[in-house]
Amino acid sequence: MESSLDKIKSIIEDFLRVMDFSGNVTVDSEGDNFFRVGIESADAAFLIGRSGETLGAIQQLCRAIISKKMNQPFQMIVDVNDYQRNRLESLKEMALNLAREVVQLNEPRWLSPMNAYERRLIHLTLAEYPGVKTESEGQGDERRIVIRPR
Question: Is the Cβ–Cβ distance between 112 and 144 less than 8 Å?
Fold first, then answer.
């Protein structure tokens, strides 16, 4: 019997093949029904797209395909050539720098709109940061985080 990790890897490899892209796929479990899919590819620029938009669409499609084929919902992060990992580290660093500014100047700072996963990461990164609190505001694609003095 093929494991969930092997099934997901096979589905992603088939997806890439159908899209006429090549890449080495790895899949790691990060908890119940949450997976991290890594793709190493020479076609990374095409798979990531401008500001990660194509990668976000690929992630959404892969999640839907895998959930349907495996008859259960799955949550996953799809990363190409560590783009997501590097972006998340960059977002954490930016949030910490802005939190320092908020504390020093006692004025709020607004971040650019971002997806729910990225907003959650910022909230968690600053949850224990002294002197600041985070809030999400806005709707849909314009939802952003505000870092406010506590």
Answer: yes
The model carries a pTM of 0.77
Structural domains of the chain ordered from first start: 4-81 (3.30.300.20), 86-149 (3.30.1370.50)
Closest alpha carbon to 76 in 134, 11, 136:
11
C-alpha 63/C-alpha 150 separation (Å) is: 38
Residue 51: closest CA among 118, 1, 6: 118
Tokens of 23: 């890449």
Backbone angles phi, psi at 141, to 5 degrees: -70, -10
Q: What is the pLDDT of residues 82-94, one digit of tens each?
A: 999 999 999 999 9
State the pLDDT at residue 18: 94
